[in-house]
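Need tokens for this chain, all 156 residues.
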Amino acid sequence: MAYKERPAEVKARIKEMSRDGKAVLGSTNWQVNGSVAEGRRMVRDFSKLMLRAYNAEADNCVRTLRPYKLQSAVDRLGKAVEVIVKLGKTMSIHVSGDYHRLRVHELGLTADYLAKQEDRSHSHGREEGPRTRSVSEAGRKLPDALTAGTRGKREG
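Here are the structure tokens for all 156 residues:
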């Protein structure tokens, strides 16, 4: 049950940080045409755009994740953070460290869940394997035994 509850808690925290403006941070003293309000609006809009790009990458990492590729997914998400820092440099836009750590934690939970599922399916498959093989072999031999039995009765 913990594997179902913890990801839900993490997703709720991600949503909360996004809604509260704590996911992507930017400069608050930026000016556009001498207007601080216009500057704040511009930084806010670019921050939303950067957050959407980051979240798209993070969601894609979660969706395509395999347990044995966790580190490459974390590295990929780290590169997305670096690109956002690079592109948002003039307005001091960057993904907050807490938000990035939360998304990496989400990847870790997802990898653990997938590994547990894989282990469960493999152990279930190993128990079923020999029994299934013997049943299928018996099923193949049954028609031969039946035809052999009927031949013997006709001849005798």
